[in-house]
Amino acid sequence: MKAKIIVTPKKAVVDPQGKTVQTALEQMGHRGIKAVHVGKYLEIELDGDKESARKSLDEACHKFLSNPVIEDYKLEIE
Amino acid sequence: MNFAVLQFPASNCDQDAIYAVRALGHSAHYVWHKENSLGNADAVIVPGGFSYGDYLRCGAIARFSPVMQAVKQFADNGGIVLGVCNGFQVLTEAGLLPGALVRNRDLQFHCEHIFLKTATTDSLFTNQIPAGKILRVPIAHGEGCYFADDATLEKLKTNNQILWQYCDATGNLTDKSNPNGALLNIAGICNERRNVAGLMPHPERACEPILGSDDGKLIFESIFAALQNKATAKAA
Predict the structure, then answer these.
(1) Closest chain B residue to A39 measured between Cα atoms?
(2) Phi, psi dihedrals of residue B88, rounded to the nearest 5°
(3) With the C-alpha atoms ordered B210, B216, B220, B226, is the resulting torsion angle positive or negative?
(4) What's the distance, CA B36 to chain centroid?
(5) Are B106 and B191 in contact (CB under 8 A)?
């Protein structure tokens, strides 16, 4: 089983990396870009049943893998 | 007075902190991150550096180390804890201080001397700083931009928890004098109970005139005075 976790900066937090990437994309001629957010992607391979994995990883996301003060996360298990 | 200075893998201001405390006439000892006890400590310094390589987020892994459980207990019992630079990041990650430190707004690592205004002398960390004195101390960080939500910022203001703010040479809180984009020019804060503080600048690197400034020692002298008061109150 594989868990996929995407961590992104909260909208209220200034994201200078995202802004810089956006500027670079615009300079390369890409049009219509409204915003870029740079985050993190974690892939976790694990055994066990899906529901308990979701429960324990959700807790890990909240306590450790993301910082709820500045980041949001999305957890998917497949 | 005896200071415990924590050592994580990749701490790099631990020796500076020990040196500063000893040079100012007090004792200090290292405490390795795997220790469960702080030894016979009157105060704790969480030093600067890149604990655990700054992997995941600055301070995110250090906060789960055994020694941080001891620091949490020490702080819960009213002990004095000062976090410098990465130490500040560790304390916010550990929930001992509100808010978070994010990437500098210009994405650059800043290594320079800056000016600090002391927002209140009513704290264990600022009581020896003369009113109106502008401190000149170095910073060296890539992720020192203080962030907190509006409700937290309001609380910090109401409770007088903002201790230091970036300013220009004459004490004006300008955007230009803010090296990293920190909200409200915040360089350092304390918790609500006022026994735990963190700041991005390095007072331990500014304790002797030969280093270009000895303004940082006022912060250490404030802690010494606070500990002395505590000891006197206990004896009485």
Answers:
(1) B56
(2) -65, -45
(3) positive
(4) 22
(5) no
Whole-number Cα distances in Å, B79 to B40, B43, B70, B93, B189: 12, 6, 11, 19, 16
Fold type of domain B2-235: Rossmann fold (3.40.50)
Q: Where are the alpha helices (DSSP H) in chain A?
A: 16-27, 50-60
| B85 belongs to the catalytic site | yes
**Does residue B143 have an active-site annotation?**
no
3-state secondary structure (DSSP) of residue B64:
helix
Q: Quote the percentage of chain B above a pLDDT of 90.
A: 97
Q: How far apart are CA B11 and CA B87, in angstroms?
A: 9
The CA distance from B135 to B52, in Å, is 31
Domains of chain A: 2-77 (3.30.1280.10)
- What pLDDT, on the 0 to 100 scale, is given for residue B234? 86
ipTM of the prediction: 0.88
Q: Tell me: the pLDDT tens digits for B150-190?
A: 999 999 999 999 999 999 999 999 999 999 999 999 999 99
Q: What is the pTM of this model?
A: 0.95
Please report which confidence band the pLDDT of residue B214 belongs to, taking 50, 70 and 90 as the band edges.
very high
- With residue B219 as reference, give the H or E element that holds it: helix B217-235
Query: In Å, how far is A78's CA from the nearest CA of chain B?
Result: 23
Say yes or no: B189 contacts chain A, CB-CB below 8 A. Answer: no
